[in-house]
Write a structure and sequence with these properties.
mainly alpha; 4 helices; flat
Length: 63
């Protein structure tokens, strides 16, 4: 697990340089998914669903 924590620290450092440090939730998600492709695929799908905008909503004008 020491390697995993090092990887998380490295990713966090890179993201922090861009002004977007990892949240604790991000770090926990990385720990949860580490080495498990099925978990990774599910988490990515969940995040994409959470942060996607439906095409019909994206161009709808609201007054």
């Amino acid at each position: 697990m020491k390697d995993l924590e090092r990887m998380i620290d490295d990713v966090n450092a890179s993201m922090a340089m861009e002004g977007m440090p990892l949240t604790e939730e991000d770090k926990e998600r990385m720990r949860y998914c580490a080495g498990d492709k099925k978990k990774t695929d599910q988490v990515v799908a969940d995040l994409m669903r959470k942060h996607s905008v439906k095409a019909e909503d994206a161009h709808e004008q609201k007054l």
